[in-house]
Amino acid sequence: MTDIHEQLCALLDKEGAVYRVLEHEAEGRTELITAIRGNKIEQAIKSMVVQVRMSKKENLYCLVNVPGDCRVDFDAIKAHFNAASIGMAPREKAEALTGCVIGSIPPFSFNEKLGVLADPMIRENEEVVFNAGSLERSIFMKMDDYFRIANPQEVKIALRG
User: Fold this and answer.
1) pLDDT at 11 over 90
2) I want to staple 78 with a disulfide (CB 3.0 to 4.6 A). Which of 86, 91, 115, 125 is the partner?
3) Which residues pair with 70 in a beta bridge?
4) Do 40 and 16 meet the contact criterion of CB atoms below 8 Å apart?
């Protein structure tokens, strides 16, 4: 399996993104890594894999991205897809789809079976930051470059507070 961090940096370079990599101690929890990196929590992009159950036999998987100070609104995702139910994807499935351990998943998908959703509140920051396929590396990049390159479907899926 190709290293996701290397794949991500190659994609950002190819697309002419303005970004920088920060190496740090291993941490995947948003509140703790934010303190280590020294960024505002709302600048962080929290990424997780959800399982969208369309029927008993059909599941979709989505990489959902919300600002670091928000929770995922599962009801909004359910309504968006008109799904039967929504839940967190099992750890093994999330790691298989992303090629990353939980806590290091970047807000980009390198798997055609994993769609990407992003809440528009991410646009409130000129620069965003996220763990970059590694618990020891983060990427700071221009928000505009994130949306241009990741090309997520923008859906209101975040709850603040």
Assistant:
1) yes
2) 86
3) 160
4) no
Task: Please check whether residue 117 is in contact with residue 60, taking contact to mean a CB–CB distance below 8 angstroms.
Answer: no
The 10s digit of each residue's pLDDT in 33-77 is: 999 999 999 999 999 999 999 999 999 999 999 999 999 999 999
57 Cβ neighbours under 8 A, 6+ residues apart: none
Contact 4, 99 (CB under 8 A): yes
Q: What is the pLDDT of residue 2?
A: 54
pLDDT value for 1: 40
The per-residue pLDDT for 161 is 76
Q: Which domains does the chain have, with CATH numbers?
A: 4-160 (3.90.960.10)
Identify the H or E element spanning 53.
strand 45-53
| Residue with token string 């036999």 | 57
In tens, the pLDDT along 117-144 reads: 999 999 999 999 999 999 999 999 999 9
Q: Which residues contact 21 (CB under 8 A, 6 or more apart)?
A: 9, 132, 137, 138, 139
